[in-house]
Specification:
The chain is α+β, with helices and mostly antiparallel strands. It has one helix and eleven strands; from the N terminus they run αβββββββββββ. The chain folds into two domains: 30 residues; 151 residues, Sandwich (Immunoglobulin-like), CATH 2.60.40.2970. The longest helix is centred in the N-terminal third of the chain and has 29 residues. It starts with a helix and ends with a strand.
Length: 184
């Protein structure tokens, strides 16, 4: 009789282990953070003296809330510390001219460190005036790619109890490429 009980227990344990092996990858995939990141502009041609606005969109394509780190992007080139836009994490742009030369950044970024909750199937849209941060002279074409990075340490969530037990994004995203032309 004891043999039958032991065999039954071993069979149940084996069945549970097989189910874990089969279904565990699906459970992990279900909880995976799935963010999309794209940039676009409302026009392809700009005057060198006008604002050059790039629309950045981070989309939560997953099925659960995601917490990303808050940041302010501030125009430091004039020393004014006026907040230009808000974004979560750090937003930088890789810009090359028509000769393949990298365009240097002239403004700086400062962060607040405040987290932001991005719900499933929602997005965060930010318009960045890159002419505040990069010197884009007239009569040239520029290829632009954005990079969003977030280094969210779990300890920061201790200050925001509403974000506990949420998925924390810690990494970076790269956008699509767009090309604009700047004329004098």
């Amino acid at each position: 009789m004891n043999k039958i009980i032991y065999i039954s227990i071993i069979a149940v344990i084996a069945a549970v282990l097989i189910m874990l092996i089969i279904f565990y990858p699906f459970a992990q995939e279900e909880n995976k953070i799935n963010l999309g990141f794209e940039i676009r502009t409302t026009q392809l041609n700009y005057s060198a003296s006008s604002p050059i606005q790039i629309i950045t969109v981070i989309t939560n394509n997953g099925n659960h809330d995601v917490v990303i780190l808050g940041n302010q992007i501030i125009n430091n080139s004039t020393g004014s510390y006026n907040v230009s836009i808000y974004l979560n994490g750090e937003l930088t742009f890789n810009i090359t001219d028509s000769n393949g030369n990298n365009v240097s950044r002239i403004g700086g970024y400062h962060g607040t460190g405040q987290p932001y909750l991005l719900k499933p199937n929602t997005n965060l849209t930010v318009i960045a005036d890159i002419s505040n941060y990069y010197s884009l002279s007239g009569n040239n074409s520029y290829t632009i790619q954005a990079r969003y990075s977030s280094s969210l340490i779990p300890e920061i969530i201790d200050y925001y109890p509403e974000y506990k037990n949420k998925a924390l994004f810690d990494g970076y995203l790269e956008s699509n490429l767009i090309t604009i032309t700047v004329v004098p």
